[in-house]
Amino acid sequence: MTQAPATRAPVRERGTTAMGTTAGPGRRDLPGTPVFDGDSSRRGLRMNRLFMSLRHAEARERFAADEAAYCREFGLSAEQERAVLDRDWQAMIDLGGSIFYVYKLAMIDGLSMQYLGGVFTGMGEEDFLAAMRAGGRRDG
Amino acid sequence: MAEVIWGLATSHVPSIGAAMDRGKTDDPNWKALFDGYAPARAWLAEHRPDVAIVVYNDHANGIDLDFVPTFGLGTAERYEVADEGFGRRPVPDVVGHPELSLHLVESLVDEEFDLTVFQELQVDHGFTVPLSVWTPDPGDAWPCPVVPLLVNVIQYPQPTAARCYALGQALGRAIRSFPEDLTVGVLGTGGMSHQLAGARAGFINPEFDALWMQAIETDPARLAAMSREELIRQAGSEGIELIMWLVMRGAMDEQITKVHSDYFVPASNTAAGIALFENRAPRPA
């Protein structure tokens, strides 16, 4: 594959439904639950590679020096590059980011998984943390 | 022959390791979790095996998404602790047991579990946090050699719960057919309910976790019958990693004896569980 994937999954509302197709073995009914599947991983491969590279201090320095150039080096799509530069965490997930990989970038910014939870739920970090300490969030 | 003497199921949340590494185990947000570990740790300190097998998953540290092995087994003499981005955990590297590893690979492939073989592997918190739950102060070395058994739980489709349970059963047979007399501890890691992304992030399901905690001891076949989708619905998109507990359980006898269990919410965004079982039938009351 020589071209960076740029399209989104066909049937999906941002952040509200499972990723994947609506037919065949990928069919799932899991509201509010992004499932990192083969399609996500295919679309997100280059972006996830970028995130994984950030384990290394020298990579973090090069990234910090010119984030856009670093994104281009890894062959991110324009949408993915925009999501990374804007720290649009939801878009990174929607564009094929694995949460474990996306988290590498959050760590660079000094952000916690609770911060991300606050973003994904729209609750904000403080309320999200309070909800976790109160026993976590429930369905319904 | 080698024999499994105990099974330990435990969450592997990175912040549990971080709390230990930073001396925060008495912090009010953490103390109850670590108090809940104490009885298991005391028992384990008295029951050191010759070798341990850790069933775990990597989190963008030892392997990446270029290759996604469904099951993998390490055959190295040594496993380096990964630097996950901000310095490696201050814990010892892991000494492996290549002879047992190679025996397990051959036995499991003969049983048609076609594992990926790792001759080199850096291990991350998914591996080292369970070792720290077992042994909080390892000093220069972990209590015994350890063999990593990797399960893909982060990219759908994960192996089915039934397949994990069957792998565990084959693992138990493979251990028992090892010619050397060795005692073995098996760690099943991950869980319990949690979800990191999406509108349902922060999801915790204590009722399901309680069911799982009971059934892993007395009725694992019931858990093995659950579909991937049902697991994600009940335990959250990351809680599906509980399937790794079934590998551990499968390697043990049908009847086991619970030594200790505990449950704590939250470790970061996760319900943390620990369950320690001795591999023998319960003594009659």
Automatic annotation (TrEMBL), chain B:
Keyword DNA damage recorded: no
Short name of any one Pfam family annotated for the protein: LigB
Signal sequence segment: none
A GO molecular function held by the record: ferrous iron binding
Keywords noted in UniProt: Dioxygenase, Oxidoreductase
Domain Extradiol ring-cleavage dioxygenase class III enzyme subunit B: 9-269
Protein name: Protocatechuate 4,5-dioxygenase beta subunit
Taxonomic placement: Bacteria, Bacillati, Actinomycetota, Actinomycetes, Geodermatophilales
